[in-house]
From TrEMBL:
It comes from the Bacteria. Its main location: membrane. The keyword Membrane applies. It is found in: Cell membrane. Pfam families: YidD. One of its GO terms (cellular component) is plasma membrane. It comes from Psychromicrobium lacuslunae. This is Putative membrane protein insertion efficiency factor.
Length: 132
């Protein structure tokens, strides 16, 4: 009985710890679904600023991911040269999921790093699928 209580407490702790991250991920996905299509392809960088922010929060968490996203937004302006600007690797995750299977890799990481996942099957829309 003691181990089930401990597991429950750990699950509640993880839920509370990940809540800010999950709220930010939900807001970013909502923005990418509802608002971003209205603007079209205007970002000077790859991945787009919203894709960068979503990957940063997914990989680094709410605080560091938000910091990286704001720093990126400040660099994205009409006088910027643009180019490829990937989210820095997390210090505990070697090369952002490079050694993990496709099922363990967040979809946004696969979409933002096509060079790493080109040999994986694609679905019909040109986006990466999770089927192996």
């Amino acid at each position: 009985m003691g181990s089930s209580v401990l597991r429950s407490l750990l699950a509640v702790g993880r839920l509370i710890w990940n809540l800010p991250r999950n709220v930010l991920i939900g807001l970013l996905k909502g923005y990418r679904f509802l608002i971003s299509p209205l603007y079209g392809q205007v970002c000077r960088y790859f991945p787009s600023c919203s894709g960068y922010a979503l990957e940063a929060v997914t990989v680094h968490g709410a605080v560091r991911g938000s910091y990286l996203a704001v720093r990126r937004l400040l660099r994205c302006h009409p006088w910027s040269a643009g180019g490829i600007d990937h989210v820095p690797a997390h210090r505990h995750i070697e090369k952002n999921f490079a050694g993990r299977s496709v099922d363990q890799t967040p979809r946004i990481v696969m979409l933002n790093h096509p060079e790493r996942y080109l040999d994986h099957p694609h679905d019909g829309n040109g986006s990466l699928s999770r089927a192996a």
